[in-house]
Structure formats: C-alpha cells, structure tokens
Amino acid sequence: MADLAEENAVPVWRARLNEAGERFKALPNNKKILFLTALAAIFAVVVGAVVLNRTPSYKILFSNLADRDGGQVTAALQQMNIPYQLGEGGVISVPADKVYDARLRLAAQGLPKASGVGFELMDNQKFGISQFAEQVNYQRSIEGELARTIEAISSVQSARVHIASPKQSVFVREQQAPTASVMLQLYPGRILDGGQVAGILHLVSSSVPNLPIKNVTIVDQDGNLLSKQSGPDDNSGLDQRQLGFVRQVEDGYVKRIEDILEPIFGKGNARAQVTANVDFSEIEQTSETYRPNSSPNPSATRSQQISEKLVNGSANPTGVPGALSNQPPSAASAPITLPPGAAPGTATLSGQTLGASGALQRDITTNYEVDKTIQHTKVPTGVVKRLSAAVVVNYRRMPDKNGEMKPTPLTAQEVQQINNLVKEAMGYNASRGDTLNVVNAAFADNAQPVTVQERVVDYVTDNGTSLIKYGLLTIAVLYLLFGVVRPIMRDLVRPAPPPGEPEGGLAVKGGRLLSVAGEDGEEGEAMAAAAGRSGHEDPREAQRRQYASNLEAVREIVKSDPRMAAQIIKEWISSDE
C-alpha cells in the first residue's frame, strides 16, 4: 500500500502543476500582466537590495590634488585594479577596505609627488656641471625640503619657499645677510596662531646660514602678512600672549576655588568664574637720593690739599739796600689752629711759631664724598589689579521624613563660611577693589538615565536615511507579495476536483458519485429524491443507503491512498469556501 501511495504521489503534483499552468492560461490578460509585473518588481527589488548591500562604501584617498598628480594617481590605481571615484576639488575615493593598502602602494611609487623637489635633485647630477648650476640646484633642494617640512603642519595645505642668498664678498662691510619668503596655502576655515607662525620663522631661519628671523617674510594665499604677528614690535602678537596669560590667571583662580569646595559639596556641586583685570603696562623708574649733611667722621675723604707759607718772618733782608730792606718788622701774630670736626671743604690752618718775629702758616683743604643713592626700578608686566569672582553652590541633598533625598538650601552661616573660604583661596584684597558673590541655588539634574525611547530616537536620527530606504523596499516587496502574488498563486495552486465531482469536495469511486458534504448536502438530497421517484422507494431510506455507500467508498479510498485523503482534508481546511 505504501508503494502504491508513492506511485500516486508524483502524478498528483505533476497534475497540479499542469493544472496551475492551465489556470494561468485561463486567467484574463490584465491579471497575467499584473502577476508577471509583480514578480519582476519583486525580483528587481531583491536584486537591487543585494547589490546595494554588496556595493563597497568609498572613502577619500586623496583630496585637493593637482591635475597632474591626479592623473598619475588614477593611472596607478588602474594598473593595480583598484576601483576609484573622482569628485570635485581633486578628490579621489576608493573602497573603504582598500584605502590604506592603496596609500602604501602609491607611496612606494612616489605618488602623489610633492609640489617641489627636495634633495633627490642632487642624486642625478650631470657630469661636468658648473659650480653655479650646482649652487642653484642646492638652493632649490633647500627650498623644496623646507616647503615639505612646513606642509607637515596640519593647517597648511601647500607651501612655497624662496631664498635669496647674496654673493659672498671678501670685504666685511659689503657682506649682506640672506633673505627668505614663504607663501602658505591654508586649508579653508583654518588659520595659524602666533606660535605656529613663530615656529615657521625659526624653522626657516635655522635652516639657512646667517639668516636672521627679521629677514623672513610669511604671507598666506590672501596676501595677509603673517610674520608680523610674531614680531617684537607688533601689538597684535603681544595681545594674543596677553589674552593667553589672562586666561591662565583666571583658570588658576577658578581651580583654587573649586578645589577647596569640591571636598565639602562633592564634585560638580560648585561652579566658579573669575575675571582678572591685569595691567600689562611697562614702568621703569630711576631715582637719585642725597643724604643730608652729617659729621665728616663716617664720611669718605675724596681729596685733601695742604698749603704752608711763612707769615711775618724775621729774616734779615738781603740784596741791594733800599726801601724793602729798610722796612721795620711787622707786628707778631698768634698762630691759628682749627679744632677737629671742621666743616668739609673748609681750610684748616695750623701754625707753628718760629720765633718772636714770624710764624709758619699751613692751609689744609679736605673734600668728602657726597652720600647719594641711585635706584633703578622696573615694574614687571602682568600685575593683577583687580579680581571679580562669582561662585554658585548646589543645594545639599538631605533625607526627608520619608527617607527620600531632597535638595535643601544652605543656611546663611554656611554661605558665609563659603564666602570666607573663597576669599582666602583667591587672595581677596579689598584695597584693590576685589569683589566676590556667592550664591546657593539648585542645579539642574542632567544625569537622568537614557531611556529606551531616547535610544531608539537617537538610532533613528543617526540612521534615518538607511532606515527609510530599506523600509520602503520592504513595504514594496510585502505589498507585491501579499497583495498581488499571493491571491493569484492561491487561485493557481488550488486543487481541482476529480473528473465528475463538482467543486466543493466530491469524489468518484467506481463510477458512483460520492458526496462528502454530509447528509444534508444538496447533491445527496437530489440523488435520493431521484431514486425515490424512479423506484417508488422512501426518499429517507434511499438517502441513508446512499450515505452508507458513500461512507464505505470513502473508507476504501482512505485505506488505499491515505496520502491523497490527507491532501484533500488539508485543502478543505485551507479553503475559504
């Protein structure tokens, strides 16, 4: 019996396929077109989705390439069988998984080439080259290497360096220092600060012998003079340093205040801001102070002059007799002796008696050093003239009656203690006009956990384009599958009743019509009525006999071909009628 069931299974499915084909042929043309269009659309959508997923994502390999460099790079990529895409602005993109491999392989070939040449120019020196040509090549090499080094700065897209080296002279007075100029092409939206410009200045100056920093000029692609920012006489560069110093001072005070409050209130529960008024004026003072007159004992002697002469001497006149030799002797005078401690700069006389008729006069002049003090004072720049501080402290979290943590404001005494602590931390000085304001307020609670809904919203926001694209594809496939294909396929694969049996579950056994619809079926009632009219038999008895006969036939079919019986029952269950 099992072998018979296996033999009957193949013809049944084959018959169903043939029947589906016949039913498809019997469909109207509009349904045929709709069915085929739906299948083609589903196939196209599925294939498109697969191709879209398998298409590699491209990443930028190089950007802002010159036309010549771009052509060399694309030619090399074609030789390496690496797909690429060209974009505006000299952008070349390759598949994301081949970006680094392509860069390494291109770098091995020396691509893309830099805008200038470096010391590789010296590798191919021709035999018999003149000294002048060799010097020119060396200078070109220096310029190219400097340009490459400057291009390593993140904000610099390209650079060109020009060096003017004067001819050396044996005369010292005629020697001139070399000069250099640097042209920078910056990336859009980027600038160089004073420190970076100063770094370029020192880099170029240190690479060329006898090149002072003041002889280096730097300009950008817009013609703006950048080297002026780092000059010693430029106020703009100095202002940048001043602003940086002010920010450093303010940040230092803020850190002091927060460091002293965080151990008390916890991290993040205290915020401080400090504004510093810094004086950058330069002041130089020179003062010369003289000490009032004092006794000469502690004073240093500068000079001393001693003069001696004879006054009213008694020596006899000599020479030719005359008026002078006949003069009478003058009156004798007592010697004058100044006591010690005479005023500085005065003559000190000391006399010595020589006899009754004369004395020796001595004059002593002493000069003392003037006691003076010269003081040169230079006030340093960056002096803090005034501080203004604002401090905000969060409410304390204290348990309430129910044990829940509730924010509680601080008391006035606690606020005053905070005020005193902050004053000590910032070095509060009322004489210079410092101000301080401490406020106790509740902070906003920003540490709320991220909910699932927020995560979903973030994911949809980040991947909105992809979700919309694949969502529309899925909706289209489902609509075509369940709205068009499924109804038509259901009509095509629905099993047809055997020959001689009406649709609705009829079977034929030995040429007899078997009704499986039950005792109340319309076909069974019609057959019973016909049998009653022909044989003058009770219709009810004939109907019962017919039902028993049909039931016996069904049992035989189930025994002989259980697979076919099971398939018929499945069709009854799945049928919508």
UniProtKB/TrEMBL annotation:
Domain Flagellar M-ring C-terminal positions: 261-443
UniProt region (Disordered), positions on chain: 284-350, 524-546
Molecular-function GO term, any one: cytoskeletal motor activity
Membrane-related topology note: Multi-pass membrane protein
Compositional bias segments (type: Basic and acidic residues): 534-544
Any one annotated GO CC term: bacterial-type flagellum basal body, MS ring
Biased composition (Polar residues): 284-317
Source domain of life: Bacteria
Compartment(s): Bacterial flagellum basal body; Cell membrane
Membrane-spanning residues: 33-52
Domain Flagellar M-ring N-terminal: 54-227
Primary location recorded for the protein, binned into one broad class: other
Keywords: Bacterial flagellum, Cell membrane, Cell projection, Cilium, Flagellum, Membrane, Transmembrane, Transmembrane helix
GO annotation (BP), single: bacterial-type flagellum-dependent cell motility
Stated family: Belongs to the FliF family.
Xref: NCBIfam families: fliF
Function noted in UniProt: The M ring may be actively involved in energy transduction.
Protein name, per record: Flagellar M-ring protein
Species annotation: Chromobacterium paludis
